[in-house]
Write the structure tokens for this entry.
Amino acid sequence: MRKALPRWVVTTSLGLSLLAVGLTAYLTVTHYTDPTTLACPDVGIINCTAVTTSSWSVILGVPVALLGLLWAVGMAALNFPWAWRSTARWLDIMRLAMSGAGVIMATYLVYIELFRVDAICLWCTGVHLTAIALFTIILVARTTVPSGWGAVADRRIH
């Protein structure tokens, strides 16, 4: 019998996903209403308004905040207990792929913040750290329950 997935993986990954939904929803709402109302200092290197109103805050006409919200909602769906209990291998593959995409995007956006905009957004940093934490937890989960998650019909969440 293979090891069961620890409960902390499910609760932590879902909690982080819901946190990401909240952060990205806030960023999306402020993008479409008034980006200058972000609860964030706007002096020196910490300047959310400079980041969220820069030309880099939109990719192909789509706000980065909205892309983040779509990612976060997808991650939340993939991290609900039913998705962790599922034997469908594609869910595990999507969870890993989307969390990896989140880290890649976060890395790109941190680069943009530091070397193009010359400012850091604290709300964005919260999303970036959440993406890194989710990816790490999902990698830990893959090593906790090795060899073919999708094939484990009796996998239980403890």
Remarks:
- The first strand starts at residue 42 and ends at 43.
